[in-house]
Amino acid sequence: MTTSTVKTNLLGLTQLEMEKFFDSIGEKRFRAGQVMKWIHHLGVDDFDAMTNVSKALRDKLKAIAEVRGPEVVSEDISTDGTRKWVVRVASGSCVETVYIPQGKRGTLCVSSQAGCALDCSFCSTGKQGFNSNLTAAEVIGQVWIANKSFGSIPATADRAITNVVMMGMGEPLLNFDNVVAAMHLMMDDLGYGISKRRVTLSTSGVVPMIDELSKHIDVSLALSLHAPNDALRNQLVPINKKYPLKMLLESCQRYMSSLGEKRVLTIEYTLLKDINDKTEHAVEMIELLKNIPCKINLIPFNPFPHSGYERPSNNAIRRFQDQLHHAGFNVTVRTTRGEDIDAACGQLVGQVLDRTRRSERYIAVRELSAENDIAQNAANNN
Ligand code: SF4
Fold first, then answer.
1. How far is residue 337's CA from residue 109's CA, in Å, rounded to a whole number?
2. Domain with CATH 1.10.150.530 in the chain
3. Which residue from 1, 59, 136, 223 has the least number of CB within 10 angstroms?
4. Does residue 68 surpass a pLDDT of 80?
5. Where are the extended beta strands (E) located within 279-382?
6. Helix, strand or coil, per DSSP, at residue 199
7. What is the CATH number of domain 8-66?
């Protein structure tokens, strides 16, 4: 009879968890820092390559642990520098990670779930339903893969990834523990050393978890608003029926206050033709947000088959932006990047071909709400 041992994946362990792991196997805690540097700074997944670790410990680690990120199905690079990875997670689903360079900034948009249960009416991810939560290793693994692809070594090199937005596929607050652990690793100097201002979590409004978030971490927050009143938001973002706007905005304000410094909430608003792009909607939005320090990010809808929605005209987008701007808001309109590799800042749909099985079509869907503009907001917050 054979017995199989489930190996501990060290990739997703925070510093504290890594120290506990080494404690649990009778090793000194400082080994955590040594191994984390190999994993996150140098992208090493082979214990034998960790040359400042004794041979005996390396052999021990090989028997009980591993460093395993998601499987890279494809990596594409756009002529404008945008990169897109399709990765397969343990559940068998594929999710996307997209990198958008902009000046000195490089923003990585990371997925938290395969599929999504929240069923926002304009979102193809929602139409697919929920498939699985990504593990902490699969969330941070997207940063690990991207960082390795750039050859970035945080201690010595210019960082390619300066900002991370949890805005890919899924609702990050519904995969709370794994996302929080991964965000700690993004910010940890033994991980990727990214400023807390430059790590942004985007939520559709899971109110209790917004309050919970403030007890665990102090990253930047973005709210997917998409409608200026409850009646319309109930249709577009059904979780609004459970956590209506007043409750939601109060929780966002509590979170922002908990940060204890001058940082502003990012509001994401997908513009849907004749649905939420009218003058009266802008008027309602001005009233709704008048007392909330925020930046507004308008996202012209990118149509996908059977969505039932259309993108507003450029004139309508400009009119809506001007109205908010004249009311004193800082408003940006998302720009499109990476179209030639199907990584344009489409709000939600990325249909990707699996490079290892070209005849088979994988649908990996994401909510890429506004990486460029969020990056800009994060930089402006600094
Ligand atoms: S918009 Fe976001 S929260 Fe809503 S269904 Fe899509 S992925 Fe889920």
1. 13
2. 8-66
3. 1
4. yes
5. 294-300, 330-333, 349-353, 361-365
6. strand
7. 1.10.150.530
Please indicate whether residue 120 is annotated as part of the active site.
no
Ligand 1 probe mutation, 125, 206, 349, most atoms within 8 A of CB: 125
Ligand 1 centroid – CA 366 distance (Å): 8
**The tokens of 102 are what?**
């902009």
Reply yes or no on whether 345 is catalytic: yes
CB proximity list for 278: less than 8 A, separation 6 or greater: none
Nearest CA to ligand 1 atom 5: 126
Domain with CATH 3.20.20.70 in the chain: 71-380
Question: Dihedral of CA 293/180/14/147: which sign?
Answer: negative
Task: List, chain by chain if needed, residues with CB within 6 Å of any ligand 1 atom.
Answer: 116, 118-120, 123, 125-126, 170-171, 204, 367
Q: Which of 114-128, 168-182, 205-219 has the lowest mean pLDDT?
A: 114-128
Q: Report the atom number in ligand 1 closest to the C-alpha of 237.
A: 4
What class, spelled out in words, does domain 71-380 have in CATH?
alpha beta
List pLDDT tens digits, range 234-277. Answer: 999 999 999 999 999 999 999 999 998 789 999 999 999 999 99
- What local confidence, expressed as pLDDT, does residue 156 receive? 46
